[in-house]
RNA sequence: GGCCCCAUCGUCUAGAGGCCUAGGACAUCGGAUUUUCAGUCCGAGUACAGGGGUUCGAAUCCCCUUGGGGUCACCA
């Protein structure tokens, strides 16, 4: 009979969800789901921030957006609550008492200054620092007296210096540490509050967590935590330290703090730039408020959860030697700890784009329409305009755009399809010059072809295609001499979807009107 | 610096002694298709950090070196 799997993710209320943290959370969630187990959200708020609720919102939001549900957590409760560490002090207190009573921990009356001096002395002597444990020489009576006098003290774990701690990590294998080299960690501060490293152990045990899946930077903490579990008489959970994610073009941990450096990476630069182009149109800030380190960046820009999930799953994990496109269900079915890679994985925005493109392509048209519509509506709200958007028209546009549309907000790149009647186009000036000014014959040709377009019947892509090609033959010109001018005339742009489909979608009236406006502009 | 972890194409990865003259994907570069761009199709280049072992045989096991990283708080 195996114990049901229980995993947890314990974020701090920081006000945003880090993409790397999301990956860790995903792995925890995946392992729980793979084993039909339980996934728990626990809030590490021992810092006692004032606006925990507010700072938590983006985190919940990220989980909900990606569809990673939790079975127990701060908002829904559960049998092992509360799920805020700040509300669990009584448990930590009990545990400290227990450790003290059993002689596994002791009160240390040394001041922080004293400890710092010890540390410096050891360093100066080029010796490994371990706690001096002066307070251990105090008799129980002396200790009581000191406490009575109001002398502050902390509680430290009495590290068994004659031992080694060994952990069989599910991804790293056997790892061991020599206790003789470890300082005694503080469990409880002099003000009676508790340290993360201790609270975590108490919580993990009380919540009956079976697998601790977390980022590699916690590996060193594991020695103390394992010791603590032993001292508390807890069965040890399985530890699985997954590699962290590194910033593009770097081998350092991807962190929000190095944001300025991140901007120097060309791949990320693009993402920052994109944020500055799109977000302001939607009233959602810009790259200074949302950046690619944050999950919310992707949500706001209209990435698909499937794309993000696929990319995150493949960062440090793989199904086999060729499968790249994985649905969440497929990953759940196949996710095992032993297939987690040990080496750190670099976050690659380009690859994320490609996953995103794949999943966008898989999406049924109806869903693409709904997704894009949301962005168009939002932009109108922000701009305080209200031009009704026909869903069928939008559907035709989306189909025509094909894979040019990678994320929903990409639809905002095509405002020329949503202009109110008579509104002026924004021209790509360079292209305009090249195709309609430098090419001196262009306006004349454009004028002639406009006459044909005016009477083309029916006004659809095949007919227009034929009309223009016949025109080219009749005039004895090359197709390139008219097609570019025509595109700029009706869209203002040098590139875009198929020209004849574009004309057809825009409709006769708009095309003629825009060609005339362009001609007028040529002078 | 101590301790710990890690090491296959530029990047994500496959590889658990012979299936590897190292496979896939992204990116890059060609070519084809096309009115442009995106895409699509075809093709190319690019990797086992180095050195010692073990073995008939090593990307795979062991050791050393080198390199990178993490962590060393009364932070989380």
Question: What secondary-structure arrangement, pairings included, does this model have?
Answer:
Elements: E1 6-9, H1 19-34, E2 38-41, H2 52-66, H3 89-101, E3 105-108, H4 112-124, H5 140-148, E4 154-157, E5 164-169, E6 173-178, E7 186-188, H6 196-206, E8 211-215, H7 219-232, E9 238-242, E10 245-246, H8 259-264, H9 266-282, H10 295-301, H11 305-313, H12 328-334, E11 345-346, H13 349-362, H14 365-383, H15 391-401, H16 429-438, H17 442-455, H18 461-475, H19 480-491, H20 499-506, H21 508-522
Parallel strand pairs: 1-2, 8-9, 10-11
Antiparallel strand pairs: 3-4, 4-7, 5-6
The structure holds one RNA strand of 76 nucleotides.
| Class of secondary structure makeup | mainly alpha
Q: β content, as a range?
A: 5-15%
Q: What Rg, in angstroms, do the CA atoms define? A: 32 Å
Detail the poorly predicted runs: none
Q: What would the principal axes of the Cα set say about the shape?
A: elongated
Calculate the terminal CA-CA distance, rounded to whole Å: 85 Å
Query: In which range does the helix fraction lie?
Result: 40-55%
Q: Total number of β-strand segments?
A: 11
Biggest sheet layout:
3 strands, antiparallel
**Secondary structure tally, helices:** 21
Task: Report the mean per-residue pLDDT as an integer.
Answer: 93
In spatial order, strands of the major sheet run 3-4-7
């Amino acid at each position: 009979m195996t114990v049901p799997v229980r995993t947890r993710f314990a974020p701090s209320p920081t006000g945003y969800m880090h993409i790397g943290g999301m990956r860790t959370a995903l792995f925890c969630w995946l392992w729980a789901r793979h084993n039909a187990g339980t996934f728990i959200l626990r809030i590490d708020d021992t810092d006692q921030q004032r606006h925990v609720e507010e700072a938590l919102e983006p985190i919940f939001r990220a989980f909900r957006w990606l569809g990673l549900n939790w079975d127990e957590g701060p908002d829904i409760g559960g049998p092992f609550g509360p799920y805020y560490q700040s509300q669990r002090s009584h448990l930590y207190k009990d545990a400290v008492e227990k450790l003290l009573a059993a002689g596994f921990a002791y009160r240390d009356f040394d001041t922080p200054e004293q400890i710092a001096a010890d540390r410096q002395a050891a360093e100066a002597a080029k010796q490994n620092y371990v706690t001096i444990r002066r307070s251990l020489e105090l008799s129980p009576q002396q200790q009581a007296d000191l406490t009575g006098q109001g002398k502050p003290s902390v509680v430290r774990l009495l590290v068994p210096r004659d031992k080694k701690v060994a952990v069989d990590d599910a991804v790293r294998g056997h790892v061991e540490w020599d206790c003789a080299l470890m300082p005694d960690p503080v469990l409880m501060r002099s003000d009676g509050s508790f340290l993360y490293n201790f609270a975590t152990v108490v919580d993990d045990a009380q919540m009956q967590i079976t697998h601790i899946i977390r980022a590699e930077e916690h590996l060193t903490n594991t020695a103390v935590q394992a010791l603590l579990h032993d001292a508390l008489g807890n069965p040890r959970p399985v530890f699985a330290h997954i590699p962290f994610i590194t910033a593009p073009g770097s081998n350092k941990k991807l962190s929000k703090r190095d944001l300025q450096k991140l901007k120097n990476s060309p791949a990320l630069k693009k993402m920052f730039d994109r944020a500055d182009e799109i977000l302001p149109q939607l009233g959602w800030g810009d790259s200074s408020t949302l950046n690619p380190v944050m999950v919310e960046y992707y949500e706001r820009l209209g990435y698909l959860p499937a794309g993000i999930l696929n990319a995150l799953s493949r960062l440090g994990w793989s199904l086999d030697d060729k499968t790249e496109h994985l649905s969440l269900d497929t990953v759940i079915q196949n996710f095992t700890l032993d297939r987690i890679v040990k080496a750190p994985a670099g976050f690659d925005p380009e690859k994320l784009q490609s996953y995103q493109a794949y999943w966008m392509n898989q999406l049924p048209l109806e869903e693409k329409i709904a997704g894009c519509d949301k962005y168009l509506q939002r932009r109108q709200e922000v701009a305080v305009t209200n031009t009704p958007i026909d869903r069928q028209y939008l559907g035709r546009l989306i189909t025509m755009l094909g894979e040019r549309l990678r994320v929903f907000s990409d639809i905002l790149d095509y405002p020329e399809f949503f202009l109110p009647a008579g509104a002026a186009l924004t021209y790509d000036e360079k292209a305009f010059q090249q195709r309609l000014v430098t090419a001196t014959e262009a306006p004349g040709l454009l004028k002639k072809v406009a006459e044909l377009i005016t009477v083309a019947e029916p006004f659809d892509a095949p007919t227009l295609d034929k009309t223009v090609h016949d025109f080219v033959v009749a005039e004895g010109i090359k197709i390139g001499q008219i097609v570019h001018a025509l595109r700029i005339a009706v869209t203002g742009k040098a590139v875009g979807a198929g020209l004849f489909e574009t004309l057809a979608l825009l409709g006769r009236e708009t095309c003629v009107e825009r060609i005339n406006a362009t001609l007028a502009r040529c002078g």
